[in-house]
Amino acid sequence: MYKRIRNQIHGLLKLEQPRPPRGRCSGLDHVPEFEPNRHLRLLTFNIQVGINTASYRHYLTRSWQHVLPYRNRIENLDRIARLISNYDVVALQECDGGSLRSGYINQVQYLAEAAGIPYWYQQLNRNLGQIAQHSNGLLSRFRPLDVTEHRLPGLIPGRGAIVARYGDRSDPLVLVLMHLSLSRAAQQRQLGYIRELIADYRHVVLMGDMNNHAEELLNNTPLKETDLVPLPPTAHSFPSWRPEKALDHILVSPTLEIRRSEVVSYPLSDHLPIAMDVALPKGYLEKF
């Protein structure tokens, strides 16, 4: 089906003007039940709306790609899909929900179908109509108990989080997918909000582009009240062509066993993806 969606870009040549899409999801009827007796392969990736950035000068020379369509974007999305097809749950940031620049293609849906991942959820955070549909995305091979979206506080609106719960309703595994603001003040407010969301849960994963280093996040923000475990401080993800900053994170509760974690060498966006395999708590299977 995604190949058919790809052909929609040719409609631009015919000056087609589809209605601007809104945040939406695939539905759960066709999604397999959550498997509590296995580990989960997690990935977070800021895809920069499918723009291939390989140097600082591209922020200037390729800036037009943030507002106008170009054919190589589909090829870039296909490359991203090949990567994410290896994972169970994927957090996406800087996606387009279907506007002029993406050829009116919902990039979250496109990537889910291209990667063969049955469940997808698009959170539309900043709606600029035909110009841009700034979105976060969740892709999942397993059926969550529920998925909710949250608008994060900030002086400039447009940041959001997706919360997906899996497993046992009385003691769920909670995944929070987010894209935080750049400013320290906004991050303080946003992480205070996130802290309240996860306060009552034991098994938590925070994933996304947090625009800050883990040491700062866990020591000088409301997350200091948690016991979340970060990746090593050397897990640099930005910029992708010369990584020197750890801005993308997967933070987990100590009840989850980290079997593997890595920065994935996949320089397509201006961020590198972060991957982690986690095992569910011992005895968790008995709760089902």
From TrEMBL:
GO molecular function annotations of the record: endonuclease activity
GO cellular component: membrane
Domain (Endonuclease/exonuclease/phosphatase) ranges: 43-271
GO BP terms in the entry: GPI anchor biosynthetic process
Keywords: Endonuclease, Hydrolase, Nuclease
InterPro entries (alphabetical): Endo/exonu/phosph_ase_sf, Endo/exonuclease/phosphatase, GPI-anchor_lipid_remodeler
PANTHER family: CALCOFLUOR WHITE HYPERSENSITIVE PROTEIN PRECURSOR (PTHR14859), ENDONUCLEASE_EXONUCLEASE_PHOSPHATASE DOMAIN-CONTAINING PROTEIN (PTHR14859:SF15)
Protein's recorded name: Endonuclease
Protein species of origin: Marinobacter lutaoensis
Organism lineage string: Bacteria, Pseudomonadati, Pseudomonadota, Gammaproteobacteria, Pseudomonadales
